[in-house]
Amino acid sequence: MLVALLSSLVKNCFVVCTWYLKRGINESGNVANDVETEQILSEDVPEDHPMQISSVVQNRGSIPLFWSQETSRMNLKPDIVLSKRDLIYEATRLHFENLAERYGIPIIILNLIKTKERRPRESILRAEFANAIDFINKDLPEENRLRFLHWDLHKHFQSKTANVLALLGKVATCALMLTGFFYHQVTPSMKLEGYMSSSSSEAEMSPHNSSDDDCGEYDSVKKSFPPKNVASGDYDGKPGRLQRGVLRTNCIDCLDRTNVAQYAYGWAALGQQLHALGIRDAPTIELDDPLSSSLMVLYERMGDTLAYQYGGSAAHNKESLE
After folding, report:
1. Is the torsion defined by CA of 172, 278, 2, 295 positive or negative?
2. Which of 71, 115, 216, 256 is most buried per CB count within 10 Å?
3. How many domains, the chain?
4. Is residue 231 part of a domain?
5. pTM, entire model
């Protein structure tokens, strides 16, 4: 089995730079540090065997409001300023319309910033972000509305009893139930014909069944492959799946807290992907499983790479907070 993480700066991202120099959104609805991450699993099999592949995509980006911070290396917690009031949140609306065009619906927003502070900083953005989502959702049909979740990661880390990754894993499982993930089986003939380089038509795929009401464990696919007769070339493949919608995560600088949440999402997805490939009987992986640790190493490397790209140094708090 091969596991890969691909992270790329989204083409229309208006800037990627040192984290304290740019924040927020522009008039066209493009945000700073807009990054797409895809977690890909594939089988390492002989050429005359069908190969299963699965992937799941998530997104991170700056909070889509007009805001800024003092550009100073000396101040570790510079003031947050709402630099422009967009009374109808037009730029924010354009941003989420673009996400819907790229990924489909639902758009699930995981907002990790602080709820309460002695000196209001992040909480200023939290309130304005909530106002923006409420305003935009008023004009959308119920099935297209943005799914918005405030989840103060700092508060959860301060709790002595909370298992933060386990709690985030439950949030991630809920998101996966809404969006599903990609799965396809490539036969030897398809490999020869170059199908791996082209996308399958939607008619060949079945949507991932989901429920808005149930966020518990569930069986997403049958537990085993149907029998295959390799000698005769008779392959009875499972139906393919498509991901529809995306989880978008943000903190303040799209680094440390976002890295933790994106790992939790990848961890929850990995169990379901392995289950879909028939490698594991259950769609979950325990946190003390060696696979969970190996996946964490991949996400730490990804976080460091992104931090170097728009921060000039590795991620500061890989297991805690900004």
Report:
1. positive
2. 256
3. 1
4. no
5. 0.81
